[in-house]
Amino acid sequence: MPNNPLVLGPIFFPLSAAALCVLFARYRRLQHVIGVGATILGWLSSVAILLLNWSDGMQLYRLGGWAPPYGIVLAPDMLSAIFTVMASTVVVAGALYILGCRDKCVSYPAFMPLYLCMAAGLHGAFYTGDIFTLFVFQELMIMSSVVLVAISDNRLGVEAAIKYLLISAMGSLFLLLGIGAIYASFGTLTIADIARLLETGERPLLAQTAAVMLMCAFLLKSAVFPFHFWQPDFHTAAPTPVHAVLSSVVVKVGVYGLFRLTSLLFIAEAPLVRSLLLLLGIIGIFFGSLAALRTYDAKRMLAYSTFGQVGFILLGIGWGTPLALIGAIVYAVNHAFIKSSLLMITGALASRMPNKSARLSDIAGAGHKLSVMSALYLIGGLALAGVPPLNGFISKVAIIRGGMDAQSWLILGLAVAAGLITLLYVVRTWQHVFQRAPETELVLKPVGDSLVAPLLLVGLCVLLGLYAVPVVEAATIAVNRMADPALYIHAVLGG
User: Fold this and answer.
1) Does pTM surpass 0.90?
2) SS3 (DSSP) at 370
3) Which of 290, 313, 315, 329 makes the best surface tag, with the fewest CB within 10 Å?
């Protein structure tokens, strides 16, 4: 469909609601209701775009009616649609969590508008078909998340926000240099047009330099080693609903960029890039798993765990076979739901503590009598470790099949061995917090954060483990279409 207005939904609804929330700054509850309504409408729009992609192919919206490459186009194909449904689902869960959140920062008039702007930037980054607009949406997402962390109840929030602001500036510089090099080389910013020109095999002076700059930018956004050092402080200091989005889906923007880089833009250079991704992926798996095993804070443990989980996704992209790419997409989707649910449960527990701390020494035994929270955490933790019949098991199997298809036995063996560490640290934390009795009597606040959002996400983890067909089929369609870049190019440019 040449101009489908539904494409605007995941971006328009959160941005419009952000403006409304500014107008109703004095009415916190009304702000939150508007935010939940807008995120649900955005989610419904993203699901509709996914279904239309499934049946009719890529959906387009040409801003101002200008045809690309002369105008900006939103061009969600199947890959974009999958990632946006994943992101919007977590964003809705975060908005529902905000309704019952007892953190002081969520009562600030700026909190909900910033959260909605972060959501709009996230969705726009997946939908855009213009590389400079990708930069604009990323900056909207980054600036919103920086302020949200800075106003956190955590006393280290400002320090973590400043760290991320400086590191993010480096990532933005990489991205801008790459965009500038591409424009100087080809005179266009439309991704499909860039792919068309690169498809000819022509490589002007700055073309391969642009590939290096873009890869560095995407690796930094995904918190991949050695660009990882900003992530634990920034994510741990964030308010729980923000942390749930940051650690589960915001890091996937960089992963999405790596998919585009290797399967659409720089296809000739893809084997070299994939070799590097395999190396960084296996380093990330071991580093993230071991760091999570040794950390002192439950939220920080999950932040480190993201390194390892993104490492598995990089292996799928690095192997590059159809089965491996399907595994990478399935892993990315399932990880988002698992990680966000665990972070919300941890945040709900920390909110009951007098000092709202998630340090393992402070919350030891704090969940001893919280049976519902204990069950949810255990299910989420087992899903993260890949225990059947949960969706994490489907993810692990999909990645293992990809490694077998690529016949990369050494890397596959190392990845499976390192994956066992995940089971060790999630079960250890569950026992430490929920199974042991507290050594001293803890005075817990009677009212904690709502468990509706993590309950929905954990339910989704169980459902997608028992019936994984929709996610696997959607990923298969996306990979089959990515195998022929001409489909994307012709859909956007015509001809």
Assistant:
1) yes
2) coil
3) 290
d(CA 60, CA 81) in angstroms, rounded, equals 12
Domain containing 97 equals 5-493
Q: Tally the domains of the chain.
A: 1
Closest C-alpha to 101, from 39, 147, 36:
36
pLDDT digits (tens, 9 = 90+) for 144-178: 988 998 888 778 888 888 888 888 888 888 899 99
Phi, psi of 383 (to 5 degrees): -65, -40
Q: What is the DSSP string of 184-253?
A: HHHS--BHHHHHHHHHTT---TTHHHHHHHHHHHHHHHTT-TTS-TTHHHHHHHS-HHHHHHIIIIITHH
- Find the angle CA(143)-CA(145)-CA(151) to the nearest 5 degrees: 105
**Which residue from 100, 113, 111, 119 is spatially nearest to 149, judged by alpha carbons?**
111
> Cβ–Cβ contacts within 10 Å for residue 39, how many?
27
The DSSP symbol for 7 reads G
First to last CA, the chain: 15
Q: What is the pLDDT of residues 249-260, one digit of tens each?
A: 888 998 999 999
Task: Please give the full DSSP string across 391-446, using - where no structure is assigned.
Answer: HHHHHHHHHHHHHHHHT-HHHHHHHHHHHHHHHHHHHHHHIIIIISPPSS-----S
Give the dihedral of Cα atoms 333, 335, 336, 342; nearest 10 deg.
150
Distance, CA of 129 to CA of 490 (rounded, Å): 13
Distance between CA atoms of residues 144 and 157, nearest Å: 14
One-letter amino acid at 237 equals A
Cis peptide before 241 (omega within 30 of 0): no
